[in-house]
Specification:
10 strands, 8-stranded mixed sheet, 2 domains, alpha/beta, Rossmann fold
Length: 263
């Protein structure tokens, strides 16, 4: 059975393969079509009119997942659509035997709100990532959403203590100027924002939907960053004029992580 790494090698050498092995190339084209596919399952049709969309996936410090899961838990959101990766990018070692992960991400809704993402991981194939971003845009348009918010971690060497800061960036200079006048902290320098939590802003911009990215400071991206998640939630509440729940539980989780690390 052809593995994905070998397929990637073949596709980087298409001309040679097509010259010497045209039949193999045809089979690989079919295989590539299957490898990068995603499934989207609509489970119900919520009655929503111009909701805001919050869309974020697991990233540095698990910030995206922590915030999305926090909002879903506190607002008791209801699932209405699921995105599934047909071919996962890893397997799980259960201790002597492997299992396949069930890679899926949910669309959930509450009053005037759509929440997408959370869970574990992001699509690793570029085609799947772009397909997922486009689906979020399609769902946003379907329900006439005018605003998409995304969020994630902002890696810094500044020592943060217990008070990380959240920076925002937007899909237009005009929107950024408005936020500056409202005293929100703007991202301090030019940088690349990779993965879903950056790319979705590009999709929003090219589709005429306003977007804001909220990125919370963190020092250690490999450790769950509950204080960073709290900072993002507080900023998101100010931007949306919504309340997402009591963040004391995030303080408790942060202290627990500190105790596990430092004893």
């Amino acid at each position: 059975m052809l593995n994905y790494v070998f397929i990637r090698f073949i596709f980087s050498n298409l001309q040679r393969v097509s010259k010497f092995c045209p039949d193999v190339l045809g089979q690989l084209l079919i295989r590539k079509e299957i490898t990068v596919s995603m499934d989207f399952i609509q489970e119900s049709e919520p009655n929503l009119e111009k909701p805001i969309v919050i869309a974020a996936m697991q990233d540095m410090g698990n910030v995206g997942s922590i915030v999305v899961d926090f909002i879903n838990d506190n607002l008791n959101t209801k699932k209405f659509r699921v995105a599934k990766s047909s071919y996962p990018s890893y397997v799980l070692d259960r201790g002597g035997y492997i299992d396949l992960p069930d890679e899926k991400w949910e669309y959930r809704h509450a009053e005037d709100l759509i929440v997408f993402g959370g869970g574990a991981g992001q699509p690793q194939a570029r085609e799947e990532l772009h397909s997922l971003c486009q689906d979020v845009i399609d769902i946003s348009k379907k329900y006439s959403s005018k605003f998409i918010y995304t969020l994630g971690g902002f890696h810094t060497n500044r020592q943060l203590g217990k008070s990380p800061q959240t920076f925002v960036t937007t899909t237009s200079a005009q929107l950024t100027n408005q936020l500056e006048r409202l005293k929100f902290d703007i991202t301090p320098q030019r940088s690349l924002i990779t993965g879903f939590n950056g790319l979705i802003l590009g999709y929003a911009k090219t589709n005429g939907i306003q977007g804001i990215g909220l990125y919370g400071e963190l020092n250690e991206p490999e450790i769950p960053q509950y204080r960073t998640a709290k900072s993002i939630i507080k900023t998101l509440e100010k931007l949306t004029y919504k309340k997402f729940g009591d963040t004391v539980k995030l303080d408790v989780m942060a202290e627990r992580v500190d105790n596990e690390i430092h004893g």
